[in-house]
Amino acid sequence: DTEVTQTPKHLVMGMTNKKSLKCEQHMGHRAMYWYKQKAKKPPELMFVYSYEKLSINESVPSRFSPECPNSSLLNLHLHALQPEDSALYLCASSEIPNTGELFFGEGSRLTVL
Amino acid sequence: GENVEQHPSTLSVQEGDSAVIKCTYSDSASNYFPWYKQELGKGPQLIIDIRSNVGEKKDQRIAVTLNKTAKHFSLHITETQPEDSAVYFCAASKGTGGFKTIFGAGTRLFVKA
């Protein structure tokens, strides 16, 4: 069982909706990540938080807004998404200093209608 | 930046046979090479990794080899079982050098009973 928990597992939203994806880990990791994965493709990095501060934003459109309220939680706020944003959104965590190993959650499958 | 190429994209083997997946990387500064297994509907899970100061690592039926000179690394699965059927991703990162992990395109492994 993964130690990174993501909710919800499935989400369907319209293009005008506002929703959030949530991620929680209790491994004491101080780096947390959002990845996007389209079908039959590898995960693509979106954001990295290090010590609750945004370290990396891979030029992600502003309709995706990450938030790291504390060292255990990571949110991804969604607003005015497009159908092409439909994908599996994966949260991951790692130690700092980063050993390289990523611990992934099971993902939130998002469908934008 | 780093680029990781992975072959084959699909691999079908009979139960009990061996499976080999190969990757090449471009950035000689990469020093950590994990392999992730992703089952249907789940997030990627680390199955084995190797660091650049080691040439080979084995864990029961799986092994990874690394040729730093040629910038090649490979995953070997022996005595394959139906539960080995999944998508496998190789990856490369600089480990403590940052938070970016570059994934290969993935190999879909089918183990036929």
Question: Main traits of this protein?
Answer:
heterodimer; A: 113 residues; mainly beta; 4-stranded antiparallel β-sheet; 11 strands; globular; B: 113 residues
Q: What order do the helices and strands come in, and which of them pair?
A:
The complex is a heterodimer of chains A (113) and B (113).
Chain A: E1 4-7, E2 10-13, E3 18-25, E4 31-37, E5 44-50, E6 53-57, E7 64-70, E8 73-79, E9 87-94, E10 103-104, E11 108-112
Parallel strand pairs in A: 2-11
Antiparallel strand pairs in A: 1-3, 3-8, 4-5, 4-9, 5-6, 7-8, 9-10, 9-11
Chain B: E1 4-7, E2 10-14, E3 19-25, E4 32-38, E5 45-51, E6 56-59, E7 62-67, E8 72-77, E9 86-93, E10 101-103, E11 107-112
Parallel strand pairs in B: 2-11
Antiparallel strand pairs in B: 1-3, 3-8, 4-5, 4-9, 6-7, 7-8, 9-10, 9-11
Instruction: Name the average pLDDT of chain B.
Output: 95
Number of helices of chain B: 0
The stretches of 5 or more residues of chain B where confidence is low (pLDDT under 50) are none
β-strand amount of chain A: over 45%
Mean pLDDT over the residues of chain A? 94
The chain pair with the largest interface is: A-B, 27 and 25 residues
Strand count, sense and closure of the main sheet of chain A? Answer: 7 strands, mixed
Number of strands of chain A: 11
The general outline of chain B is: globular
Q: N-to-C terminal Cα separation of chain A, in Å?
A: 31 Å
Percent range for helical residues of chain A? under 10%
Taken as a percent bin, the fraction of beta residues of chain B is: over 45%
The shape of chain A, in one word, is globular
**Ends distance of chain B:** 41 Å
For the largest beta-sheet of chain B, the strand count, sense and barrel status come to: 6 strands, mixed
Tally of separate helices of chain A: 0
Helix content of chain B: under 10%
The computed structural class of chain A is: mainly beta
Topology pattern of chain B, helix = H, strand = E: EEEEEEEEEEE
Q: Name the quaternary structure.
A: heterodimer
